[in-house]
Amino acid sequence: MVNTIYLDNSATTKPLKEVMQAFMVVNEQYYANPASIHAMGVEANDLLIRAREQVADILQTEAKNVLFTSGGTESNNAAIFGIARSNTHIGKHILTTEIEHPSVLETMKQLEKEGFDVEYLRVDRRGVISLDELRTKIRKETILVSIMHVNNEMGAIQPIKEAAKMIHEMSRAAFHVDAVQSFGKLAISFKEEGPDIISISGHKIHGFKGSGVLAFRKPIRWQPFALGGGQEFGMRSGTVAVPQAVALAKAARLAVETMNERSNKYRQWHDEIRTQLESYGEAVHVLSTPQGAAHIVSFSVCDLKGEVIINAMQKRGVIVSTSSACSSKQTKTSHVVEALHLDEHYKKGVIRLSFGAHNTIEDIENFKQVLAEVMLELKGEKK
Ligand SMILES: Cc1ncc(COP(=O)(O)O)c(C=O)c1O
């Protein structure tokens, strides 16, 4: 669509030109298999080594602890299955939260079927876990704690540092953080007290769909997810997609370099839109909080279905989504909205707008204008 204002960057982002350029060059000139021992293979492998080192530097770990994957879903699955299935000699107890992405929750459900004891931490109305509840739930036999950094549906930020300290003091559990929505927007690394495992997705940071990272603070007892030719230090078999790896490293570097500048802009836009939304009084409930991630604003209009608002905005060239792309085609209320215990009137459709590197102040001004028009048009329309 031409002339659209794309405000669905938490679903996916448009790749940056520099990232596409890097991808093209590697595909055209360095397409050899990086595991091949001939000169072309060595060249491709050199690029892979450099990409891995770049990501390792950003995350403050060693290159041997960085694996390239096919995205956030694979990284989350691999982290959780890998830790759980190889640490049963310590215990079978796992902690996570009730608002994780389905790539975590569905993996946990599978582990429950396999006899693991999974407990789900609750969140308050701001979407944040209680550290007191975490403290009471950690046991000697807890082997894994998986907590997302930023929630994809409404932007709540979890207290990762404090949780890491507590988990490490009280147990031998590995701490996995799904940083898919936070990487490049908030500081996240293995520096000081932090997670043991981090998942990242390329397409949320202006890289490509089908690319991701699973990174470890240090080598850990872990069972590989994909078996085969022993690539990626034997931890993730399959011919490594060097162009994706190089593109992801480039996207990651650009995201981190521009993080502060973008965050300041996003915060200002977030605050302005919040002020406008709050001016509609009881007609609108804003789920995102001022303490949450700046790039996500989610809200709900009293007794109105999400699709109605999405369509009304789309007619005017503005693309927003229901709270999450993966549940947006489903009709049932999302698990995140349920966990927030919203009033029934605000459960029918949560709208999420999410900013990205290509958005401009003009986009936001236009969005605010469209929001005003749509609110006027839909006034009194209840479904
Ligand atoms: C918080 C979170 N985790 C994981 C994923 C899955 O990432 P991918 O689409 O790369 O598989 C997403 C995607 O929406 C997400 O928002």
Automatic annotation (TrEMBL):
Its cofactor is pyridoxal 5'-phosphate. Residues 5-367 form the Aminotransferase class V domain. Keywords: Pyridoxal phosphate. The keyword Acyltransferase does not apply. Signal peptide: none annotated. The keyword Ligase does not apply. Pfam families: Aminotran_5 (PF00266). InterPro entries: Aminotrans_V_dom (IPR000192), Cysteine_dSase (IPR016454), PyrdxlP-dep_Trfase (IPR015424), PyrdxlP-dep_Trfase_major (IPR015421), PyrdxlP-dep_Trfase_small (IPR015422). PANTHER family: CYSTEINE DESULFURASE ISCS 2-RELATED, CYSTEINE DESULFURYLASE FAMILY MEMBER. This is Cysteine desulfurase family protein.
